[in-house]
Design a protein that fits this description.
The protein is an alpha/beta fold. It is about 35% helix and about 15% strand.
Length: about 400
């Protein structure tokens, strides 16, 4: 009897052990299945996000030559992320941004950086990181600093490729890039408290280009090579045309602001010069800010632009600037103000940022597509995976929930 009891206990223990093994295997298999499903969902979410970028490219392809406005069809696509585009069981939300509505961190001069949420050390370090040379600025950093780090690397000495690359710069952290900072620059970019100020990431881009064309879509002429008769025909003043011609014979102009400093330039002459001439022969220039799409915060980073004129520009955006010279029509925008600011501006843009969130099941993927026009054709040049998690909700101002659905393909 005692022996039977022992056998029974051993058998019971064996059953318990086998049950535990089976349960463990079941849990392991379930975890593996869920992991595979998660991977599949992430792949689907990325693919649908990429489809969203292509949808934006299709919309951009309808753009016509001329000024880029906030009323253009690309600007209203997706209703700032409020619309959900449904493709079968998956979906995407989308927003297209004019890259020239932002400050190009690769072109911004020190005076402009000083009006942004940056310390002087951060400014010097950014300038050192993006520019050639081995000697650092007073509080900047070159290879000697970066080579001494625990994980050493070199300063790039080239333009930044993405905004997230700023995290490689001395003094830059996720907090300084992604979160509103205390008033480190002394410049308030928008009204309200410190928390309502934009984070640096909200202000910048590494890609912005614009065509240098007149109102007829023809490339602007080089003020340093145009003949005197052509200049006189545009400005309507032989005296001013002679002054421009004689000045450039001695020292070529490097900015349109310098051209406007020529004696005799009136508001009307300045308008004509800005609409018809440029510095150099390039069909495209980088780093200019589109008067039609720039935000209050971005306009307030421009040195020597009075706050009241920022508000005047913003109020004009609903109507739109058809040409750069129209800025001279604004009340209070004098030739003297133009001399100091016009080289920052454009009314066109050739580069756009496509913000998209793809959703498949419970998985989401956030992408930013950089699209630029080449030979008048919108071309995808890069897809970025933003480093900051939940970037659409925290950075782009989208609502948590969409307000409408657009079904592109029914779920079969």
């Amino acid at each position: 009897m005692k022996r039977r009891g022992t056998v029974f206990i051993l058998a019971l223990l064996t059953v318990v052990a086998l049950t535990a093994v089976v349960a463990s295997m079941s849990i392991s298999q379930r975890s593996a299945v869920l992991s595979r499903l998660r991977r599949v969902e992430m792949i689907r979410a990325e693919r649908i996000a990429e489809a969203g970028i292509q949808r934006a490219i299709a919309e951009l392809s309808t753009r016509t030559t001329g000024p880029v406005l906030t009323t253009d069809s690309w600007a209203t696509l997706g209703n700032n992320g409020d619309d959900r585009f449904v493709v079968g069981a998956d979906s995407f939300r989308i927003q297209v941004i004019d890259a020239s509505s932002l400050v190009n961190i690769n072109n911004a001069p020190e005076e402009q950086l000083q009006r942004m949420p940056l310390t002087q050390e951060e400014i010097d370090s950014i300038l050192d990181y993006r520019s050639a040379g081995e000697t650092p600025r007073a509080t900047g950093a070159k290879d000697d600093y970066y080579n001494a780090l625990t994980t050493p690397y070199n300063a790039k000495l080239l333009p930044f490729e993405t905004p997230d690359e700023l995290l490689q710069v001395r003094g830059m952290t996720p907090k300084t890039l992604y979160q509103p900072q205390e008033n480190v620059s002394g410049t308030t970019l928008v009204g309200g408290t410190a928390d309502s100020q934009p984070a640096l990431i909200d202000l910048i881009t590494t890609d912005s280009t614009c065509s240098q064309v007149d109102t007829a879509g023809t490339q602007k002429r080089n003020i340093n090579t145009a003949n005197q008769q052509a200049i006189q025909q545009v400005v309507g003043s032989a005296q001013v045309a002679t002054q421009i011609f004689q000045r450039r014979q001695t020292t070529p102009f490097t900015t349109m602001g310098q051209v406007l400093q020529v004696p005799g330039v009136t508001t009307q002459i300045a308008k004509s010069l800005l609409d018809n001439f440029q510095i150099g022969n390039g069909a495209v220039q980088t780093g200019k800010i589109n008067l039609n799409t720039a935000t209050e915060a971005v306009l307030n980073t421009i040195p020597n632009l009075p706050a009241d004129l920022v508000q005047t520009i913003l109020s004009r955006q609903s109507q739109g600037f058809q040409s750069l010279g129209e800025i001279m029509d604004l009340p209070g925008f004098s030739v003297q103000v133009a001399q100091q600011t016009v080289d920052q501006f454009s009314v066109t843009s050739d580069t756009f940022l496509v913000r998209v969130v793809g959703t498949a099941g419970s998985s989401k993927v956030t992408l930013i597509g950089v699209v630029t026009f080449r030979n008048n054709i919108p071309t995808l040049i890069r897809i970025e995976h933003p480093a900051e998690s939940n970037v659409s909700a925290s950075r782009w101002g989208w609502n948590d929930e969409t307000t409408s659905d657009t079904v592109l393909k029914e779920n079969s």
